[in-house]
Design goal:
By secondary structure, this protein is of the alpha+beta class. 53% of the residues lie in helices and 20% in strands. The chain has 4 domains: 109 residues, no CATH class; 102 residues, Beta-Lactamase; 80 residues, Helix Hairpins (Orthogonal Bundle); 164 residues, Histidine kinase-like ATPase, C-terminal domain (Heat Shock Protein 90, 2-Layer Sandwich). The strands form 3 sheets. The chain has a 6-stranded mixed beta sheet with strand order 11-12-10-9-7-14, with helices on one face. Strands 2-1-5-4-3 form a 5-stranded antiparallel beta sheet, with helices on both faces.
Length: 478
């Protein structure tokens, strides 16, 4: 009986050894399972020798049954242990492989993501930054690792936002979109937004923070541009409101003149009409023309803003156009002592333009200069040639000049330099904005030079491609 038990024990020990050898390949732990398999094999060999001598009858005494049963039980436990540990090791191997794959996936995501990942330990010290952190912020991670938020600071953060962020960290609360700035490798200010969540272990103990950060510079700049656009829109709306408030006066005054003088003509006797009706008719004509100019300006501005103002281009003599403008405005001088000087450094300048709009440009500039020039002042119109072959026309005056604060807005629609409620000169503030738009349509440029108390000069440049011919000479009109 003991011999049978011994044989079974030998079979079990060799089976356990074979199982151990198989686990070498399964687990990859060569030395551990090799030693176990070798030990089991040697035990099987030893017991095989004992079995041989027992069967051959050369052993002095047969193996004891109890001892062999114990050995059989131990061998059985070895086989069960080896073969039962196999699925456990398979599961551990699969879990390890899955964990490794998960780490590799996370690393791959972190490397290709434009956002960066970060981590803190239970003492709120930074322990990890993904590779994107350096490219986004321009800061090397090693300069921050092992340090707390209080130690590294948060440049550019709002003081209240920083204090709230520190309170969230101290109280282990999640936080979102804490914004601060960094300087990247190109010397540009980068706006960084980070969010984080506290992590707790299985026992509920705080283990640190895990979070994400991103570059929101484009968003911040877009919001700033939007705020600027909104401010400009509000300013334009305010200018229009001021314009509408003043327009009631601009429209009502000539209308009152028209109605009043029309009533005088209509109510006067035929004898009195003969003496004064021509004068009244002149007043009515002036008031009507003022309204006509205003309405025309409004219509032109609306067409320009809608992009529906088209040029009717033809070849014309710029010198003749300028001389006709002088004739148009010479009668608008407030006093005969005001000088209107023209110095045209050319006999003929043939340009391809819209003649009507060119006259509108310079009639407007000359009228504006005359309006702001004192009785003993001077308005000058000059024509010259630019270095690239274009034509430069300058309208200058000896008026009060334009304050520097108004220079940037002088071409804005409805804008009038100075306090509109105290101005002596009438106007809706449309002329210069229309002039600039018409010059732009011709591909030209418009610039202004002015000094308070000395006067203003407006330069209009027509590009060389619009100048067909330029005949030098001097034509001067005073």
């Amino acid at each position: 009986m003991s011999t049978i038990v011994l044989a079974l024990s030998i079979v079990l020990q060799f089976s356990a050894a074979i199982g151990a050898f198989r686990l070498i390949k399964l687990t990859g732990h060569l030395w551990v399972w090799s030693l176990i398999a070798a030990a089991l094999t040697l035990m099987g060999v030893r017991r095989s020798i004992t079995f041989y001598w027992a069967v051959a009858g050369d052993v002095p005494q047969s193996p004891e049954l109890i001892a062999e049963l114990v050995a059989l039980f131990i061998s059985l436990l070895m086989v069960i242990g080896v073969f039962r540990i196999k699925p456990l090791l398979v599961q551990v191997g699969q879990s390890t492989k899955a964990l490794q794959q998960s780490r590799e996936d996370f690393k791959a995501f972190a490397e290709v993501s434009s956002d960066f990942f970060w981590a803190m330990d239970d003492e709120l010290r930074f322990t990890y930054f993904s590779e994107a952190f350096s490219s986004v912020t321009g800061v090397r991670p090693e300069t921050l690792l092992g340090r707390t938020r209080r130690e590294v600071g948060a440049p550019g953060a709002e003081p209240e936002a920083l204090q709230q962020h520190l309170r969230d960290l101290d109280e282990r609360r999640p936080f979102r979109e804490f914004v601060h700035t960094r300087m990247n490798n190109r010397g540009e200010t980068v706006f960084v937004s980070i969010s984080g969540k506290p992590v707790f272990d299985d026992h509920g103990e705080f283990a640190g923070y895990r979070g994400i950060g991103r570059d929101i510079s484009a968003q911040v700049r877009a919001e700033a541009d939007l705020a600027t656009s909104l401010e400009e829109a509000q300013r334009a709306n305010m200018a229009k409101s001021e314009f509408l408030a003043k327009m009631s006066h601009e429209l009502r005054t000539p209308l009152n003149s028209i109605i009043g003088f029309a009533d005088l003509i209509g109510g006067a006797s035929p004898q009195k009409r003969e003496g004064r009706h021509l004068e009244y008719a002149g007043y009515i004509s002036d008031a009507g023309n003022s309204l006509l100019y205003l309405v025309n300006d409004l219509l032109d501005l609306s067409r320009i803003e809608a992009g529906k103002l088209d040029l009717v281009e033809t070849e014309a003599d710029l010198v003749e156009l300028l001389e006709s403008c002088i004739v148009d405005v010479v009668g608008t001088r407030s006093h005969e002592s005001m000088k209107l000087v023209s110095s045209l450094e050319a006999q003929t300048v043939v340009v391809k333009v819209d003649p009507v709009r060119i006259r509108q440009i310079f009639n407007n500039l000359l009228s504006n200069a005359i309006k702001f020039t004192p009785e003993t002042g001077q308005v000058t119109l000059t024509l010259g040639r630019s270095d690239d072959g274009g034509a430069i026309v300058t309208v200058s005056d000896t008026g009060p000049g334009i304050d520097q604060d108004d220079m940037e807005k002088v071409f804005d629609p409805f804008h009038q330099a100075g306090d509109v409620l105290r101005r002596k000169q009438e106007g809706a503030g449309l002329g210069l904005s229309i002039v600039k738009a018409l010059v732009d349509l011709h591909g030209g440029s418009l610039s202004v030079e002015s000094r308070v108390g000395q006067g203003t000069a407006v330069h209009v440049t027509l590009p060389a491609e619009r100048c067909v011919s330029f005949q030098a000479g001097l034509r001067s009109v005073v």
